[in-house]
């Protein structure tokens, strides 16, 4: 459900789908993502970065509601939904803990849990001609897991924008995403978005930042998210 490969200085995770390329975050994909991040974390060196990509109309269409609704009753469906939420939590924690820069190339829609997955990266690059980032939970009558709200507050630049994204379910295109702090840059199409993400990744990797320090500084930027996820920070003392 996802692949991990090394391209020069870059680790590349590619979300894959067996059917309609919506890259729904079901238990199989979430387990695959966590395994890929664990494998990546054991291989990182100074001078590397991560780029996450997905092909097709969607970066990710959030949790797999079809899998949840296939349960025998409503209690079973709710249990499956909680299971997916509980399974995404360590994926977000792993992204925030990686000792290298991370970039999401959002070349299609990123909805709900898929938007949270994208925003858990350091940089979000997005195609400007098509695609939106949005949180439709308010329209679906679904409450947000605590770490969803924490990630949104950390990554959206103003309370007004956060209100519109979370309480109105506003669909954010690349230009608006740049204005409210979610999106780093906008690009002409899917291919140019991925190419720009690769260039940015190579640029960031070339600076060969010290891994532990990078991870700890990142965590210090988002104390609320880290507290919700149970991530601790530690002091890194320079050897110079």
From TrEMBL:
One of its GO terms (molecular function) is delta(3)-delta(2)-enoyl-CoA isomerase activity. It catalyses: a (3Z)-enoyl-CoA = a 4-saturated (2E)-enoyl-CoA; a (3E)-enoyl-CoA = a 4-saturated (2E)-enoyl-CoA. The keyword Lipid metabolism applies. It is an enzyme of class 5 (isomerase). This is Delta(3)-Delta(2)-enoyl-CoA isomerase. Belongs to the enoyl-CoA hydratase/isomerase family. Pathway: Lipid metabolism; fatty acid beta-oxidation. Pfam families: ECH_1. Keywords: Lipid metabolism. Its EC number is 5.3.3.8. It comes from Clitoria ternatea (Butterfly pea).
């Amino acid at each position: 459900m996802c692949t991990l490969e090394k391209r020069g200085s870059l680790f590349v995770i590619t979300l894959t789908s067996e059917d309609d390329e919506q890259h729904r975050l079901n238990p199989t994909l979430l387990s695959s993502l966590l395994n890929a991040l664990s494998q990546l974390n054991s291989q990182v060196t100074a001078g590397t970065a991560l780029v996450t990509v997905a092909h097709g109309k969607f970066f990710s269409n959030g949790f797999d509601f079809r899998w949840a609704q296939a349960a025998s009753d409503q209690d079973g469906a709710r249990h499956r939904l909680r299971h997916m939420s509980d399974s995404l939590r360590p994926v977000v924690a792993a992204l925030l803990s990686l000792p290298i820069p991370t970039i999401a190339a959002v070349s299609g829609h990123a909805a709900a849990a898929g938007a949270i997955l994208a925003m858990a990266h350091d940089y979000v690059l997005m195609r400007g001609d098509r695609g939106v980032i949005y949180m439709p939970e308010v329209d679906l009558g679904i409450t947000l897991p605590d770490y969803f709200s924490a990630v949104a507050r950390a990554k959206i630049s103003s309370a007004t924008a956060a209100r519109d994204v979370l309480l109105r379910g506003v669909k954010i295109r690349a230009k608006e995403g740049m204005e409210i702090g979610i999106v780093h840059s906008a690009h002409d199409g899917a291919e140019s978005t991925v190419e720009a993400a690769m260039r940015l990744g190579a640029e960031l990797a070339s600076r060969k930042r010290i891994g532990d320090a990078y991870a700890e500084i990142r965590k210090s930027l988002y104390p609320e998210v880290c507290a919700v996820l149970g991530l601790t920070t530690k002091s890194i003392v320079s050897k110079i």
